[in-house]
Amino acid sequence: MRRQTDLSNKINLNSMSMKIYKQLVVALVMAALSFSAMADESKPEKSSTPAKFYFLDNVGLYFGVIDETVNDFISAAADKKIERLYINSQGGDAHFGIIFGHWVYDNQIEVEVPSLCMSACANYVFTAAKTKIIRPSALVIWHGSAEQWTIREMNKKYEDYLALSLAGKASKEQIAYLDSDKLRYEGSNQLLSEQRQFFKKINVNEYITRLGHEPVFYKRVWVATVGVMNKMNIQNISAPEGYGNIDYLKKHHPDRIDRLVSFGLNSEHEVAKLD
To answer: How far is C-alpha 184 from the chain's CA centre?
Structure first.
């Protein structure tokens, strides 16, 4: 079932000043945030709350997990001239995140993050935007991707066992592993192919999606300063002063410091962890 409301059909914009119109957009954002609170970063893609989306003139609003609802959103947006997307999401399915990202990029959409854009939202929706706006106190949080080392290691294990099997040297346990892991392995490779094509298309360095995993695995999610995002070729970002550095996090999210890693640029303009 499509979880969508076309608010423009319910509002007489002719009798509404532009100021009130803008206030209404902000009110909608705040209302949506109330049902989709900031996620637990330890489980960024788990949510029982269904995603919801709305349209108001040339603005699309998407709140909640990234899943098949993305297809409904894109279908509903087809007859509209959407220029900006307000999104608040804790992440979700990478495949649907990539689909969402293609739509954002192809339609030259401006993406605004009022509170949280995490995991699949950060990887694919935020990076694909023509212009990226991070509102005061908002966070874009990275968590990993199809390219991360943990997935690469699982795939290598599968491929090593497969080579042994083809050579007639695999144990019963290794053969059983090949049978049980086949669908995961095939799905992982398909997703990896989709992701590589996507980042090549938008010309962004996918390393931003595994910065907190390699070369050091911090076992936490991470944020990056505008300088680091620019270095990864994520351009046209509007963000609060000091966004992503440790002082910004201490000021706006002191209760999340122990769950976040902050990355900035050192004096040589190289990526460095900010303590």
So the answer is: 22
Tokens of 148: 């991360």
| Beta-ladder partners of 140 | 117
Indicate the residue type of 112: E
Helix or strand or coil: residue 213?
A: coil
- Pairing label, strands 271-274, 260-265: antiparallel
CA distance 106 to 83: 11
Output the CA torsion sign for 71, 229, 255, 113.
negative
Residue with tokens 């460095």: 272
Measured in residues, the chain has a length of 275
Judge whether residue 34 has pLDDT over 80. Answer: no
Alpha-carbon distance values, 86 to 61, 110, 207 (Å): 5, 9, 25
Q: What is the mean pLDDT of residues 142-165?
A: 92
Give the whole-angstrom CA distance, residue 18 versus residue 11. 13
Both tokens of residue 141?
A: 């949080």
**How much is the pTM?**
0.84
Give me the phi and psi of 240, to 5 degrees please. -60, 155
What are 212-237's pLDDT values in tens digits?
999 999 999 999 999 999 999 999 99
Return d(Cα 263, Cα 97) in angstroms, integer: 23
Whether 41 contacts 116, CB under 8 Å: no
Contact of 53 with 82, CB cutoff 8 Å: no
End-to-end CA distance of the chain: 46
5/24 Cα distance (integer angstroms):
15
Element (H, E) at 151: helix 149-166
